[in-house]
Amino acid sequence: MTNNEPYYAPPVAPNYAPGTVPNQAKGLAIAALVVGIVAFLLGLVPIAGIIVGAVAVVLGIIALVKKQPKGFALTGTILGGVGLIVSVIVTILATIVAGAVVSSVGELAQQTQVAVDENAGTTGSGDAGTRENPLALGTEVAGKDWTVTINSFTPDATADVMAASPINSEPEAGMVYGLLNVSLAYTGEGSSSVLLVPFSFVTTDGTVYDASVFLPEAPAPALGTGELFAGAGTTGNIVISLPAGAEGALRVSPGIFADDVFYNTK
Protein backbone atom coordinates (compact mmCIF):
# COMPACT_ATOMS: atom_id res chain seq x y z
CA MET A 1 0.00 0.00 0.00
CA THR A 2 1.40 3.39 -1.02
CA ASN A 3 1.36 6.47 1.09
CA ASN A 4 -1.22 8.07 -1.22
CA GLU A 5 -3.91 5.35 -0.86
CA PRO A 6 -6.77 6.08 1.64
CA TYR A 7 -7.03 4.00 4.72
CA TYR A 8 -10.37 2.39 5.69
CA ALA A 9 -10.93 1.13 9.20
CA PRO A 10 -12.44 -2.37 9.49
CA PRO A 11 -16.18 -2.47 10.37
CA VAL A 12 -16.91 -2.47 14.06
CA ALA A 13 -19.60 -4.80 15.48
CA PRO A 14 -22.60 -3.11 17.16
CA ASN A 15 -22.00 -2.45 20.81
CA TYR A 16 -25.07 -3.61 22.78
CA ALA A 17 -25.37 -3.23 26.48
CA PRO A 18 -25.10 -6.54 28.31
CA GLY A 19 -28.38 -8.52 28.22
CA THR A 20 -30.02 -6.40 25.49
CA VAL A 21 -31.12 -7.26 21.94
CA PRO A 22 -32.24 -5.13 19.03
CA ASN A 23 -35.85 -3.88 19.08
CA GLN A 24 -38.27 -6.47 17.64
CA ALA A 25 -41.25 -5.60 15.44
CA LYS A 26 -44.31 -6.14 17.56
CA GLY A 27 -47.21 -4.39 15.79
CA LEU A 28 -49.06 -7.61 14.93
CA ALA A 29 -48.57 -9.00 18.45
CA ILE A 30 -50.00 -5.87 20.04
CA ALA A 31 -52.89 -5.86 17.55
CA ALA A 32 -53.61 -9.51 18.37
CA LEU A 33 -53.67 -8.68 22.08
CA VAL A 34 -56.01 -5.70 21.67
CA VAL A 35 -58.37 -7.51 19.32
CA GLY A 36 -58.28 -10.58 21.58
CA ILE A 37 -59.38 -8.49 24.56
CA VAL A 38 -62.23 -7.02 22.51
CA ALA A 39 -63.24 -10.51 21.34
CA PHE A 40 -63.23 -11.75 24.92
CA LEU A 41 -65.54 -8.91 25.95
CA LEU A 42 -67.83 -9.59 22.97
CA GLY A 43 -68.06 -13.30 23.69
CA LEU A 44 -71.67 -13.00 24.87
CA VAL A 45 -72.69 -11.14 21.71
CA PRO A 46 -73.91 -13.46 18.92
CA ILE A 47 -72.00 -13.26 15.60
CA ALA A 48 -69.87 -10.24 16.64
CA GLY A 49 -67.75 -12.28 19.06
CA ILE A 50 -67.17 -14.91 16.36
CA ILE A 51 -65.91 -12.37 13.82
CA VAL A 52 -63.67 -10.43 16.22
CA GLY A 53 -62.41 -13.63 17.85
CA ALA A 54 -61.41 -15.10 14.48
CA VAL A 55 -59.51 -11.91 13.62
CA ALA A 56 -57.64 -12.04 16.94
CA VAL A 57 -56.66 -15.69 16.42
CA VAL A 58 -55.40 -15.01 12.90
CA LEU A 59 -53.37 -11.98 14.00
CA GLY A 60 -51.92 -13.92 16.93
CA ILE A 61 -50.84 -16.85 14.75
CA ILE A 62 -49.22 -14.55 12.19
CA ALA A 63 -47.40 -12.69 14.97
CA LEU A 64 -46.10 -15.99 16.39
CA VAL A 65 -44.93 -17.13 12.95
CA LYS A 66 -43.05 -13.84 12.49
CA LYS A 67 -41.50 -14.32 15.93
CA GLN A 68 -42.95 -11.16 17.36
CA PRO A 69 -43.27 -10.88 21.17
CA LYS A 70 -44.68 -14.22 22.21
CA GLY A 71 -46.48 -12.95 25.32
CA PHE A 72 -48.64 -10.47 23.45
CA ALA A 73 -49.31 -12.77 20.51
CA LEU A 74 -50.14 -15.85 22.60
CA THR A 75 -52.39 -13.91 25.00
CA GLY A 76 -54.28 -12.33 22.11
CA THR A 77 -54.71 -15.72 20.45
CA ILE A 78 -56.05 -17.33 23.62
CA LEU A 79 -58.44 -14.48 24.41
CA GLY A 80 -59.66 -14.41 20.83
CA GLY A 81 -60.20 -18.16 20.85
CA VAL A 82 -62.17 -18.03 24.10
CA GLY A 83 -64.32 -15.17 22.79
CA LEU A 84 -64.91 -17.03 19.53
CA ILE A 85 -66.00 -20.27 21.24
CA VAL A 86 -68.28 -18.50 23.72
CA SER A 87 -69.86 -16.47 20.93
CA VAL A 88 -70.48 -19.62 18.89
CA ILE A 89 -72.33 -21.17 21.84
CA VAL A 90 -74.32 -17.99 22.45
CA THR A 91 -75.19 -17.73 18.76
CA ILE A 92 -76.47 -21.32 18.72
CA LEU A 93 -78.58 -20.71 21.84
CA ALA A 94 -79.93 -17.45 20.41
CA THR A 95 -80.87 -19.25 17.19
CA ILE A 96 -82.73 -21.92 19.15
CA VAL A 97 -84.60 -19.31 21.21
CA ALA A 98 -85.45 -17.28 18.10
CA GLY A 99 -86.75 -20.41 16.42
CA ALA A 100 -88.95 -21.18 19.41
CA VAL A 101 -90.34 -17.63 19.40
CA VAL A 102 -91.09 -17.78 15.67
CA SER A 103 -92.77 -21.15 16.17
CA SER A 104 -94.91 -19.77 19.00
CA VAL A 105 -95.95 -16.79 16.90
CA GLY A 106 -96.86 -19.16 14.09
CA GLU A 107 -99.01 -21.21 16.45
CA LEU A 108 -100.78 -18.09 17.68
CA ALA A 109 -101.45 -17.02 14.11
CA GLN A 110 -103.02 -20.39 13.39
CA GLN A 111 -104.64 -20.98 16.77
CA THR A 112 -108.20 -20.55 15.53
CA GLN A 113 -109.29 -23.83 14.05
CA VAL A 114 -112.81 -23.83 12.80
CA ALA A 115 -114.64 -27.04 13.69
CA VAL A 116 -117.69 -27.28 11.46
CA ASP A 117 -120.56 -29.15 13.06
CA GLU A 118 -121.70 -31.99 10.82
CA ASN A 119 -125.34 -30.97 11.08
CA ALA A 120 -124.78 -27.23 10.61
CA GLY A 121 -122.55 -27.35 7.54
CA THR A 122 -121.34 -24.30 5.60
CA THR A 123 -122.33 -22.45 2.47
CA GLY A 124 -120.34 -21.49 -0.60
CA SER A 125 -116.80 -22.59 -1.39
CA GLY A 126 -113.31 -21.72 -0.25
CA ASP A 127 -112.10 -21.27 3.33
CA ALA A 128 -114.97 -21.47 5.79
CA GLY A 129 -115.40 -18.59 8.20
CA THR A 130 -114.26 -15.75 5.93
CA ARG A 131 -116.37 -12.74 4.88
CA GLU A 132 -116.69 -14.31 1.45
CA ASN A 133 -117.75 -17.68 2.88
CA PRO A 134 -119.26 -17.15 6.35
CA LEU A 135 -120.22 -20.03 8.58
CA ALA A 136 -123.81 -21.05 9.14
CA LEU A 137 -125.45 -20.04 12.39
CA GLY A 138 -125.03 -22.78 14.97
CA THR A 139 -121.51 -23.67 13.82
CA GLU A 140 -119.00 -24.14 16.64
CA VAL A 141 -115.67 -22.30 16.40
CA ALA A 142 -112.79 -23.71 18.45
CA GLY A 143 -110.01 -21.24 19.24
CA LYS A 144 -106.96 -21.71 21.45
CA ASP A 145 -108.69 -20.48 24.61
CA TRP A 146 -112.37 -20.23 23.68
CA THR A 147 -115.03 -22.27 21.96
CA VAL A 148 -117.71 -20.02 20.49
CA THR A 149 -121.08 -20.58 18.78
CA ILE A 150 -123.44 -17.95 17.42
CA ASN A 151 -126.73 -19.76 17.86
CA SER A 152 -129.09 -17.22 16.32
CA PHE A 153 -129.38 -13.65 15.06
CA THR A 154 -132.44 -11.41 14.92
CA PRO A 155 -131.72 -8.43 12.62
CA ASP A 156 -134.44 -6.25 14.18
CA ALA A 157 -135.24 -7.06 17.80
CA THR A 158 -135.83 -3.44 18.80
CA ALA A 159 -139.19 -4.13 20.44
CA ASP A 160 -137.77 -6.98 22.55
CA VAL A 161 -134.74 -4.89 23.58
CA MET A 162 -136.91 -1.90 24.57
CA ALA A 163 -139.11 -4.18 26.65
CA ALA A 164 -136.10 -5.72 28.43
CA SER A 165 -135.37 -2.71 30.63
CA PRO A 166 -136.89 0.72 31.29
CA ILE A 167 -133.44 2.31 31.09
CA ASN A 168 -132.95 1.24 27.47
CA SER A 169 -133.18 4.15 25.05
CA GLU A 170 -134.57 4.13 21.54
CA PRO A 171 -132.03 3.44 18.79
CA GLU A 172 -130.77 6.40 16.79
CA ALA A 173 -132.61 7.45 13.64
CA GLY A 174 -132.19 4.87 10.89
CA MET A 175 -130.82 2.30 13.34
CA VAL A 176 -132.32 -0.81 14.93
CA TYR A 177 -131.28 -3.19 17.68
CA GLY A 178 -130.13 -6.60 16.45
CA LEU A 179 -130.00 -9.50 18.88
CA LEU A 180 -127.38 -12.27 19.04
CA ASN A 181 -127.69 -15.44 21.07
CA VAL A 182 -124.23 -16.92 21.68
CA SER A 183 -122.58 -19.72 23.63
CA LEU A 184 -119.07 -19.43 25.05
CA ALA A 185 -116.83 -22.00 26.76
CA TYR A 186 -113.41 -21.21 28.20
CA THR A 187 -110.78 -23.86 27.39
CA GLY A 188 -107.57 -22.01 28.24
CA GLU A 189 -105.44 -21.92 31.38
CA GLY A 190 -106.53 -20.24 34.59
CA SER A 191 -109.50 -17.96 33.99
CA SER A 192 -110.68 -15.25 31.62
CA SER A 193 -113.60 -12.93 30.90
CA VAL A 194 -116.18 -13.11 28.12
CA LEU A 195 -115.31 -9.47 27.40
CA LEU A 196 -112.23 -10.83 25.61
CA VAL A 197 -114.50 -12.41 22.97
CA PRO A 198 -115.88 -9.47 20.95
CA PHE A 199 -118.83 -9.72 18.55
CA SER A 200 -119.72 -7.30 15.76
CA PHE A 201 -121.75 -6.83 12.57
CA VAL A 202 -119.80 -6.01 9.39
CA THR A 203 -121.82 -4.52 6.54
CA THR A 204 -121.17 -5.39 2.91
CA ASP A 205 -119.35 -2.05 2.48
CA GLY A 206 -117.02 -2.88 5.40
CA THR A 207 -118.53 -0.72 8.15
CA VAL A 208 -118.23 -2.35 11.60
CA TYR A 209 -120.85 -2.14 14.35
CA ASP A 210 -119.71 -3.60 17.66
CA ALA A 211 -121.97 -5.44 20.06
CA SER A 212 -122.27 -4.29 23.67
CA VAL A 213 -122.83 -6.38 26.79
CA PHE A 214 -123.62 -3.25 28.83
CA LEU A 215 -126.19 -0.92 27.27
CA PRO A 216 -128.75 -1.35 25.98
CA GLU A 217 -129.57 -4.26 28.28
CA ALA A 218 -130.37 -7.42 26.34
CA PRO A 219 -133.50 -9.50 26.91
CA ALA A 220 -133.04 -12.41 29.29
CA PRO A 221 -130.91 -14.41 29.39
CA ALA A 222 -128.38 -11.62 28.83
CA LEU A 223 -124.76 -12.60 28.26
CA GLY A 224 -122.83 -11.84 31.43
CA THR A 225 -119.45 -10.20 31.82
CA GLY A 226 -118.17 -12.42 34.60
CA GLU A 227 -115.04 -14.51 34.94
CA LEU A 228 -114.91 -18.09 33.66
CA PHE A 229 -112.45 -20.80 34.63
CA ALA A 230 -111.33 -23.58 32.30
CA GLY A 231 -114.22 -25.89 31.49
CA ALA A 232 -116.94 -23.36 32.35
CA GLY A 233 -119.33 -21.92 29.79
CA THR A 234 -122.23 -19.52 29.38
CA THR A 235 -125.05 -18.79 26.93
CA GLY A 236 -126.87 -15.51 26.57
CA ASN A 237 -128.10 -12.62 24.44
CA ILE A 238 -126.10 -9.62 23.28
CA VAL A 239 -127.29 -6.46 21.47
CA ILE A 240 -125.86 -4.84 18.34
CA SER A 241 -126.99 -1.43 17.07
CA LEU A 242 -126.96 -1.55 13.26
CA PRO A 243 -128.56 0.24 10.29
CA ALA A 244 -132.11 -0.87 9.51
CA GLY A 245 -132.16 -3.37 6.65
CA ALA A 246 -128.33 -3.63 6.52
CA GLU A 247 -126.77 -6.62 4.79
CA GLY A 248 -123.53 -8.14 5.98
CA ALA A 249 -121.98 -10.79 8.21
CA LEU A 250 -121.47 -11.38 11.91
CA ARG A 251 -117.90 -11.44 13.22
CA VAL A 252 -116.37 -12.96 16.35
CA SER A 253 -112.79 -13.15 17.63
CA PRO A 254 -112.50 -16.24 19.88
CA GLY A 255 -109.63 -14.87 21.98
CA ILE A 256 -107.16 -11.99 22.07
CA PHE A 257 -104.76 -13.40 19.47
CA ALA A 258 -107.34 -15.38 17.50
CA ASP A 259 -108.22 -14.74 13.87
CA ASP A 260 -111.63 -13.27 13.14
CA VAL A 261 -114.35 -15.70 12.11
CA PHE A 262 -117.47 -14.66 10.17
CA TYR A 263 -121.01 -16.04 10.35
CA ASN A 264 -123.91 -15.74 7.97
CA THR A 265 -126.80 -13.69 9.33
CA LYS A 266 -129.44 -16.18 8.18
Give a written overview of the molecule.
The chain is of the alpha+beta class. It has 2 domains: 27-109; 113-263, Immunoglobulin-like. 30% of the residues lie in helices and 23% in strands. The protein is built from 4 helices and 11 strands, in the order H-H-H-E-E-E-H-E-E-E-E-E-E-E-E. The protein has helices spanning 27-41, 48-65, 70-109, 158-164, and strands spanning 113-114, 140-142, 146-154, 175-186, 191-193, 199-203, 208-212, 227-229, 233-243, 248-252, 261-263. It has a 9-stranded antiparallel sheet, with helices on one face. Strands 5-8 form a two-stranded antiparallel ribbon. Strand 2 (140-142) and strand 3 form a beta hairpin. Helix 1 (27-41) runs antiparallel to helix 2 and helix 2 (48-65) packs antiparallel against helix 3. The protein is rod-shaped and about 140 Å long. The relative contact order is 0.12.
